[in-house]
Recover the amino acids of this structure.
């Protein structure tokens, strides 16, 4: 049996292990959160290096992207380099393909997305492919990178401006402790509603991007809106239902009742292929994703007809 | 190396104020950010500097700030380098020569301000 370990800076309350069968291969997928403790994450990776087939790095990015530029996140790289034998990946190898495909799927296979759909993308530099896909189909869009990471009430509305701001800020910001840029550990478990930045949620039809950023300033009511995100728990889904969201779409499939981050899915592909990530490359990942034939998971939260 | 003087630091603060206030995009980004920032030069104990951010405008005074939201402490050379745009705050922050006391969001935002200015 192949073994894949996801090491996350996120909350340990989301830990789980499942066994799945993919393309005739049995795989154990395990996720371990370290509650924001980078040192513990590094230690876990060292302990499992050479013991598992691939390691996914969750709750942290190793790379940010904007318009062809790649920015290396210092803390993310530190974790990646802790694995000397086992390949370690952060999900960025498949995000570009998987998330572009998800936007196209929603446009062509559902009633949810139209070129007039107003999008709030809470952060785009961590999923630039999704951002580009929304722009390509013509959706009015707000990129909330400054709003959600730094609390600055500045909506970015074009990819050009996003790339410009990224070029000024990210080379330095990527050196800062990742916990300053992104909610980790206990911060991910904060409850309650926020009125701060509600205007940006109100002005959108779909809230897209990283779940923990979406959750950071989630207002008490988001009636009629739908969510496009990565991984959610049953508790997250119940909360969105209670606040009036119509649908939740997750880009990664549910496996044995749990959804996993792109980092674990990418690690699973690395384990299945038996290749190093650099050997797989963009096209290699795309081929494996086609073979696995993942479709986004769409959950209708308010009953009625499925879209 | 010559030691920085209070006048060097004041000139750097003037320069920083001009750059902040002429940047229309930055003013818009900071329109909700009203903060008092105390600047402490470790090697110039008699120097007092109080930066006031108000609705996107920056002003500063040669005065002690008694109840600051953020305290910026570093050797004068480091502070001057940051305010003149000759260095980013990231490296001195990471190597401990610059300390920033305040909420994490305010500290991050101050970093964004300096990076937005000097990336122009």
């Amino acid at each position: 049996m192949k073994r894949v370990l996801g090491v996350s800076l996120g909350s340990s309350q989301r830990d789980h292990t499942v066994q799945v069968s993919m393309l005739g291969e049995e795989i154990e997928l395990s996720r371990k959160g370290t509650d924001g403790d980078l040192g513990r994450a590094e230690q876990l990776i060292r302990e499992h290096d050479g013991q598992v087939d691939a390691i996914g790095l969750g709750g942290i990015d190793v790379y940010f992207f904007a318009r062809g530029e790649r920015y290396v996140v210092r803390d993310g790289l530190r974790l990646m380099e802790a694995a000397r034998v086992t390949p370690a990946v952060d999900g960025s190898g498949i995000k570009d393909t998987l998330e572009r495909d998800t936007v196209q799927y929603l446009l062509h296979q559902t009633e949810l997305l139209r070129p007039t759909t107003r999008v709030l993308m809470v952060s785009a530099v961590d999923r630039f492919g999704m951002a580009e896909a929304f722009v390509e189909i013509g959706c009015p869009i707000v990129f909330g990178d400054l709003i959600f990471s730094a609390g600055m009430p500045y909506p970015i509305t074009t990819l050009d401006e996003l790339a410009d701001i990224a070029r000024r800020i990210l080379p330095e910001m990527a050196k800062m402790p990742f916990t300053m840029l992104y909610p980790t550990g206990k911060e991910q478990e904060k409850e309650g509603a926020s009125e701060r930045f509600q205007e940006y949620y109100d002005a959108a039809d779909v809230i897209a991007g990283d779940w923990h950023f979406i959750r950071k300033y989630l207002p008490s009511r988001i009636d009629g809106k739908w969510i496009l995100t990565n991984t959610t728990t049953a508790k997250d889904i119940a909360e969105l239902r209670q606040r009036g969201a119509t649908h939740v779409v997750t880009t990664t499939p549910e496996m044995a009742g749990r959804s996993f981050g792109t980092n674990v899915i990418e690690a699973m592909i690395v384990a299945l292929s038996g290749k190093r990530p650099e050997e797989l490359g963009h096209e290699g990942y795309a081929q494996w994703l086609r073979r696995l034939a993942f479709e986004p998971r769409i959950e209708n939260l308010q009953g009625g007809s499925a879209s | 190396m010559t030691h920085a003087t209070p006048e060097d630091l004041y000139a750097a603060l003037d320069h920083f104020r001009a750059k902040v206030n002429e940047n229309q995009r930055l003013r818009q980004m900071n329109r909700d950010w009203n903060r008092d920032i105390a600047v402490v030069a470790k090697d110039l104990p008699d120097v007092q500097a109080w930066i006031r951010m108000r609705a996107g405008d920056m002003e500063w005074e040669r005065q002690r700030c008694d109840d600051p939201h953020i305290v910026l402490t570093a050797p004068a050379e480091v502070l001057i380098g940051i305010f003149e745009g000759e260095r980013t705050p990231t490296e001195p922050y990471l190597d401990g020569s610059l300390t920033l006391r305040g909420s994490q969001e305010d500290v991050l935002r101050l970093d964004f301000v300096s990076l937005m200015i000097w990336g122009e």
In short: Chain B touches chain A through 23 residues (CB under 8 Å). Chain B has one domain: 6-113.
